[in-house]
Design goal:
Number of helices: 4
Radius of gyration: 19 Å
Oligomer: single chain
Number of strands: 0
Structural class: mainly alpha
Helix content: over 70%
Mean pLDDT: 90
Strand content: under 5%
Low-confidence stretches: none
């Protein structure tokens, strides 16, 4: 039973990554966006200043009716990932600096 649960969980993760990839491709190819940003996250960011993006945000949120404020949630997830990347890069830089000091 644990193996089945693990397989289902793994399939869920794979499906999430496939949907995310499709969203990034849509954002890049059809909306000339950044390939590192999902269409949902971009729609949230752009909707504050553009009524067309606001309409698209409402449509996407309608499609993802089971997740409250899907576009905002997607945007926040990307911001959180970016912060973690910056923190990890800062930690690596600090470790390298310390190693260089130790060598001298």
């Amino acid at each position: 039973m644990k193996k089945l649960a693990h397989v289902i969980e793994s399939l869920g993760e794979v499906l999430y990554h496939i949907v995310s990839l499709v969203s990034r491709i849509l954002n890049t190819v059809f909306f000339s966006g950044d390939m590192y940003q999902t269409l949902s996250a971009r729609t949230y960011a752009e909707s504050a200043s553009n009524p067309n993006w606001e309409k698209l945000r409402k449509f996407i949120n309608f499609i993802f009716f089971f997740q409250k404020n899907h576009c905002q949630t997607a945007w926040q997830a990307e911001v959180d990932r970016a912060v973690k990347t910056i923190q990890r890069n800062n930690a690596i830089s600090e470790a390298k600096s310390q190693m260089n000091k130790d060598i001298k």
